[in-house]
Amino acid sequence: MHLIVCSSKDVASMNIMNNLLTMLDFEKKKAGDYDFYYTEDIGIIKVDERLIYADYLDERLKKLGLNFEEILFASRHSSKDERNILTVHVSGNVGTADYGGKTYSLAKPSPITMKNYTLALIKRINELPDFEFTLEATHHGPSEIQTPSAFYEIGSTEEAWKNEKAGEIVAESMIEAVKDERKDWIIAIGIGGTHYVPRQTEIMISTKFTFGHNFAKYTFPHLNEEIIEKAVKISDAEYIVIDEKSVTSNVKNLIKNVAEKLKIDVLRSKFVKREFKLEG
Predict the structure, then answer these.
(1) Is this prediction's pTM over 0.90?
(2) Which domains does the chain carry?
(3) Per-residue pLDDT of the chain (280 residues; tens, 9 = 90+)
(4) Sign for the pseudo-dihedral over CA of 204, 117, 231, 140
(5) DSSP 220-242
């Protein structure tokens, strides 16, 4: 089962949840103190905590008898620029842990579902002319999630969080993503770029690659071999893709050492965009 987690403290999360409940024939029951809605292959659980602080939620829910193979966190996105965006990213922290989770701790990603979601969403994004899609770099909690997971977000203002069409499109794309049977995407971790990792976003949309963790340039002072190696392993990554315009020589050396140790290749983003284009 794919479990979608929604928070009563999150306007966008409730928007997505309300749309989901209209799209499939869910049954309802209690799981401990939680409301649990379910079909044969998709579950929705409503929690009363902020999602960024939901460390160990997968363990807590499994102790209640819920069985699921991955988590999709339906969430709001906040930013100072107040852009209208739909985002997807993995949670975790490199340096500080200012918004949930622990330092130098990474949640396990679900890169296949993230890819399927991206392609489903891109088909519908023109229905929201004031919105754009973007990946985000790994940030915020929960970092203590061992079940594959990612955040699926509406940003960046309360008006956007309440936008019914945005909630509908995100909900539809989530359902399509978990029902999509295509699994043959090439998994990488990404290193470099700004918080919205524009080159990785282009790769996600236009090539056969998908991403687990992405580390933006602002994490470089805290980045080390151990965290890069962990990101590769828990992402099940076959490659490390770098934003060649922003990766410093020090970070290149870190990446080179990890790649040699794990026997994987390092690819430039320009090469990936050119050589691994999606067909059709």
Answers:
(1) yes
(2) 1-183 (3.40.630.50), 184-280 (3.40.50.10700)
(3) 999 999 999 999 999 999 999 999 999 999 999 999 999 999 999 999 999 999 999 999 999 999 999 999 999 999 988 999 999 999 999 989 999 999 999 999 999 999 999 999 999 999 999 999 999 999 999 999 999 999 999 999 999 999 999 999 999 999 999 999 888 999 999 999 999 999 999 999 999 999 999 999 999 999 999 999 999 999 999 999 999 999 999 999 999 999 999 999 999 999 999 999 998 6
(4) positive
(5) TTT--HHHHHHHHHHHT-SEEEE
